[in-house]
Amino acid sequence: MATTQEAAPADPNTSRRGLFGRRQITEAEKREAFFTATQWRLIWLKFRSHRWALWGLLVISVFYFVAIFAGFFATNDPVTRRPEYQYLPPSILGQARSFRLFDQAGGFRPVIYPVRTKLNLQTFEQDVFPDLENERPLRLFARGDPYTLFFFIDSDIHLFGTGDPEVRWFPLGTDRSGRCLYSRMVHGATLSLSIGILAIVMSWVLGVVIGGISGYFGGIVDNVIQRIIEVLMSFPSMPLWIALSAALPLDWTVVQVYFAITLILSVLGWTGLARVVRSKLLALREEEFVLAATLDGCRRPRLVARHMLPSFASHLIVVASNQIPTMILAETALSFIGVGLRAPAVSWGVLLKEAQNVQSVALRPWLLLPALLVVCTVVAFQFLGDGLRDAMDPYR
Question: Is residue 121's pLDDT more than 80?
């Protein structure tokens, strides 16, 4: 009688062939790769396992990419006024729908219909009537309003459009001056997102330099710097931002106000980072590698910049990622209350200023769409900061 032999258990250290004949990595190889990987490689592997952080990074990357090429992604010029298109609703809503995925013949082809408006004498609102007999196909890379890319590249190619200057497409409706809200939101991302990056870079430099001086030299220098930081931190941030922003001259240009707001946010935002740098340097001054570098003749500036700061650079990255949304919210709040960026500048705060009354919220809710972008940006940065904080300690 034949005997049945039991199958030997599979060795987890034996390589196997997976789908399409690819060799699967064994557990032993995974452990070896973990213990031989560099610090930044371990950080990336830990960060990659944080799903929400990856989604946050994706959203932020898309927003900044669109902000860089705002003129290409916008469908219209953001500052051109068209009174005949005042307060148009989004083109996909209601009976006034001017954008459809299927043409009159029933075929799948995105089309745009010209619209005409008529004042309703009973509601004193503009009634919108799409011309269904005169359709235009929605084209990719269509010509439209001219714009300048990177301050020196002139172009009129847009991602979407009809190619017909007589037929305008307003995906998210218009404001009280007939300006395309979608195009203004896209161009507003350029100012709102860039001001957060510039402000955090300037405050990061100030915090690292001043905190480094305070933490390394100590003594009377440390006492003076810490007292200055305590005085600055004793003032509420928002009232101080409002007071400094309101003091800006009204005849300044958009560029001057932009850099002034960036400077105000950065000068008042470096104190927390400076204290973090100081505490880290105080803890590292007695470490053996600092003593070895000192005995080797390393000068103090090089010792701090070359040996001490890189040892906790990952922590500084996390702090910076958490402060960027604070800067974006500060600019939005200042522009919303009228002491930040002002028209003709286009930012998310300036757009929200037009929706700060009950009538706009009740009758024209699409004017609140810029607030959705602010919320998405802040939440994405929070997810990214959480992922970076966990990834910077890959052995935990």
Answer: no
Top pLDDT among 383 and 167 is at 383
- Comparing C-alpha atoms, which of 271, 272, 273, 257 is closest to residue 334? 257
**CATH number belonging to the domain at 184-391, selected among 3.90.550.10, 1.10.3720.10, 3.40.1790.10, 1.20.1740.10:** 1.10.3720.10
Categorize the per-residue pLDDT at 89 as very low, low, confident or very high, splitting at 50, 70 and 90. confident
- Integer angstrom CA distances of residue 383 from 65, 198, 322, 388: 19, 21, 10, 9
Greatest Cα pair distance in the chain: 103
Structural domain spans, the chain? 82-175, 184-391
Peptide bond into 236 cis (omega under 30): no
Spatial distance between the Cα atoms of 185 and 43, rounded to a whole number of angstroms: 35
Cα separation, 262 vs 353, whole angstroms: 19
Could you tell me the sign of the dihedral formed by the alpha carbons of 68, 74, 80, 81, in that order? negative
Residue 64 CA to residue 66 CA, distance in Å, equals: 5
- Name 299's Cβ contacts closer than 8 Å, sequence gap at least 6: none
Two structure tokens written together for 112? 């745009």
